[in-house]
């Protein structure tokens, strides 16, 4: 009679491979379906697209430069957000490096969306390359992600409530958005609960590591994982002592979202249009929420489609809404992507741009491999 444990291990392996295969197929179809849907919508509104192209050719350069300044200020806010936990953990980081890292992490996240994992991974890697311990670099990325998610989620909820109360969005149309939002919050809540107990969380991570190593036929030691999580919890204890620091980070994230919306409004001004400020802000929030639910590389045109469709429901001419969305994406996405290429070239060389601070409360120096 076959060993029961071997049968169970074989069953888990088959289920794991099957689930990974199914997930890859789902992602492939989503990445294909969204651009196709955008193409169909674009064809149906081709007259508006032609008119939008004419508006783009007459866009005011002065207002576009103001939009670029708003995007630069956005990433300055994100850079200062990074500096807060770094300073609490005893590091001194140059602001230009943090600014470039913020630009690149966001660009990587939008180019290769994976629930925020790509931007998180790049931010951790960039910090580690410049002298921050691995676990503490991961903590910086986590705190930044949590503060930004909290700011954006509160704006999304407020916008959905407003749109529902005013009749712009019907309650039955919120079902999918609310369901996915609840699922994301549930996963985040579970992870937060698990990591509260260091011993339990470390044991759970080691079990996951062992299962993954077994499926890949590898033999990975436990010590690097324990050291990484030890650094994470040491940094976490430092940050918990200063709860007002997280409140300050949250405030900076609201300012960053405001800068994003300001760049979008500057795009309208460049086209000679002056819609209500609240309409522009809600159009940005709704588009961000929609793209977060269905992650497609570069947005797949979905961001521009959602944004221009929302503006059309608010009485803004379709050509103006499309032109403003396209112009905003040039300012807020394609220009930062170009900057990111330069940052990535510099990041290839490993050097300590982030150093421990000197003074009575300075952290001890860590040996790097």
Please describe the structure with a list of short key phrases separated by commas or semicolons.
2 strands; 369 residues; two-stranded antiparallel ribbon; globular; disordered C terminus; disordered N terminus; mainly alpha; single chain
Q: What structural class do the secondary elements suggest? A: mainly alpha
User: What is the mean predicted local confidence, pLDDT?
Assistant: 76
The rounded distance between the terminal residues' Cα atoms is 49 Å
According to DSSP, the number of beta strands is 2
In short:
The chain has 369 residues and is mainly α. It has a domain of 236 residues.
Task: Give an account of the 3D structure.
This protein has 369 residues and is mainly α. It has a domain at 45-133 and 145-176 and 242-356. The protein has 13 helices and 2 strands; from the N terminus they run αααβααααααααααβ. A two-stranded antiparallel sheet has the order 1-2. Helix 2 packs across helix 13 (318-347) and helix 3 (61-88) crosses helix 13 (318-347). The radius of gyration is 23 Å and the shape is globular. The model is unreliable at 1-27, 170-174, 358-362 and 364-369 (pLDDT under 50).
Give me the secondary-structure topology.
Blueprint lengths: L3 H41 L1 H12 L3 H28 L2 E2 L2 H17 L5 H13 L4 H32 L9 H22 L1 H19 L6 H18 L2 H28 L6 H17 L8 H12 L4 H30 L7 E2 L13
Antiparallel strand pairs: 1-2
Helix pairs in contact: 2-13, 3-4, 3-6, 3-10, 3-13, 4-5, 4-13, 5-6, 6-9, 6-10, 6-11, 8-9, 10-11, 10-13, 11-12, 12-13
